[in-house]
Amino acid sequence: MKDIDLLLAKYFKENISDEEMSYLQDWISNNETSFKEAVKINFSINSVLKKGKKIDSDISFSKFLEQTKDVKVIKLEPKKRWSGWLKYVAVFVVLITSSYYLLNNKVFVSNDNIEETNSVTEISLTLGDGTVKRIDTNINQDIYSEEGAYVSTQNKDELIYDKSKGEIENKDDQLSYNVLSIPYGRIFKVSLADGTRVVLNAGSSLKYPETFSKDGAREVFLEGEALFEVTKDAKHPFLVNTTKHKIRVLGTQFNVNSYEEDQMMHTVLVEGSVGIYKTNDVFDIKKSTLLSPGEKATWTRLENTMSVEKTNVDQYIAWTKGELIFVNQSFKQMIKRLERHYNVKIENNYLELGKSKFSATFKGETIGQVMNTIQKYSHFSYKIENNKIIINHKNQK
To answer: Is residue 112 a contact partner of residue 366, using CB atoms and an 8 Å limit?
Structure first.
């Protein structure tokens, strides 16, 4: 949760971002009295410079409501059969179109039984010798190469590499790399040989050595999204390679979102410090993009530019707990995340819906429950064909 005092200060100075306004609006909807008190305090401070001017906190509150009139706050009570999974869903809908239709809880499609399958549903581990191991997250096991050499230990949803048990002695120029691939609809963890922990999101893969070199950097290669908790080792910096950039750290926790099909790459720093630079460049602290805790770096593919801003870290690492958090995102932007999380394909034929912006939190809901929730506050229908969701305007056939 963002610092409310800071958000209020930015609101009064009229330099608050859309994302921050969404959080502030959520807080004010439940704290109207506190907001009015904040207005009075703000006025008492400003009155030193603006003597004699009076302010009405009720009018100020009305002004806030006017500024956010396009944002609908909806609290949904779950059906009884959702007990234990869903307490409530708060959805803020920013309408792009000029008209708005509330569908009075009409549901056009019941899809609790949607078959969420894709061509690839298994987690796979490709060893350095090319052997592919299928990972069953319901079991514990030791993993060995075709020659019978110990590779790692699997504890259900996590692989653990332990140097003390390793039988393969890698020379510095002959590191053996494994590739861990995660399909849509799954999340998986891996503890590397240096103790670094990585959580991989759906549709991601990580290439890493079974043991790290005694000299030089600890280097891994990421496609997709992962949360890293890096073991500190000042003599051996940790490098994360993506298709366009490298991220250099000594010991820290950060999230990298670098799906090849996305138009933007995000790096969010939880703690510590990182430097971001182009893949083919040599690290130079003066030329790199440096992040402090609570900051997000965004690289835009089309413009080939990098920007840095303060952010709410929680929304970017919530996926590691099975949550989906959207803050002022268009439905078009949400589609790919929903596809990865639920292992479905979404075809949206209703372009106006794609422009509509949402702020919402989902945890434990099925894709059917998510679609039904959005559907109740937008004017569309949808149907299911195998694992594909096809969205149309209500009046479309």
So the answer is: yes
